[in-house]
Amino acid sequence: MKGKGPTQNTFKKAKIREAIDGWLFSLPFVISALVFFIGPLIVAFLLSFKQYSFLDGSILDAEWVGFSNYIRAFKDPVFRKALLNTTIYAIGVVPTQLVIALALALVVNSKIKGKTFFRTAYYIPTITSTVAVAIMFMFLFKSDGVLNKFLGLFGVNPYTWYDNIYLALPLIMLMAIWSSIGLYMIIFLAGLQDIPDSLYEAASIDGASKWQQLIYITIPMLKPTIFFNLVVSLIGAYQIFDQAYVISDGNGGPLNSTMTVVLYLYKMGFDEFDMGYACAIGFILFVIIFILTLIQKKFFGEETKM
């Protein structure tokens, strides 16, 4: 037993050294998370209960107003309009882009010629700057843009599409769908390639049609992928900012028809310097996204567990 003492001490020292090395390797991430994520999150949460502006000086001296900022948000007609616009945007964009992305994934996963080209072509808009895409769509739909010049060939007078309160938001939705389907297509494609070919072969032997294979094999096997894409897409939809900012020149016009929750948060925080109210809007948005994610998780149930 005495001979085991030095060995045990050496083993303990090695374990301690291993633990220290592990913490040292993870320290940069821990510090980054504290400085750039956890710390600002805590400060923002505290600010949501205060009346604070960047011009007021120290955060500690800001007036504590309790839930006033949250109550104000739900009484604010502009915030309610922004929340309605964002919800309409999400309802229109999320299912549309996922259905199109799945259809494209099925196409590029088939044995068609040139599928590598199509995969690249469909994915390119995803890696293009959102601001560049927004400017391109503004060029297409402005009064002297490509669409109006094309319609002019048929005698149609030029029209300022983004100045119409009923068309501005749908055009932004169209832009978002076009620019993002490539990302979800690639994820669906990865899910499709994980489905064993033997399932389709067995179904073909049993006489199942392509449609039946899609309904009873592809869709059920893709449920975890669909859930992932749905959550990511919904979060992205509720966080829409840059497209609305560029198209409306930062004011959410015309008549707040393109005002979104994040754009309004930005305006309150960095235009009006009402940071406490902006933080409250941010946490309201967080709660909405969290609840919607839980609902989706409940809907997909056990199928999402790997």
From TrEMBL:
Pfam families (alphabetical): BPD_transp_1 (PF00528)
Domain ABC transmembrane type-1 intervals: 83-296
Compartments in which it is found: Cell membrane
GO biological process terms held by the UniProt record: transmembrane transport
Keywords: Cell membrane, Membrane, Transmembrane, Transmembrane helix, Transport
InterPro entries given in the database record: ABC_transporter_permease, MetI-like, MetI-like_sf
Membrane-spanning residues: 21-47, 88-108, 120-141, 165-192, 213-241, 275-295
Membrane topology (UniProt): Multi-pass membrane protein
Main location: membrane
CDD domains: TM_PBP2
Protein origin, superkingdom: Bacteria
A cellular-component GO term for this protein: plasma membrane
Family: Belongs to the binding-protein-dependent transport system permease family.
Protein name per Swiss-Prot or TrEMBL: Sugar ABC transporter permease
Organism field: Thermohalobacter berrensis
Upper lineage: Bacteria, Bacillati, Bacillota, Tissierellia, Tissierellales
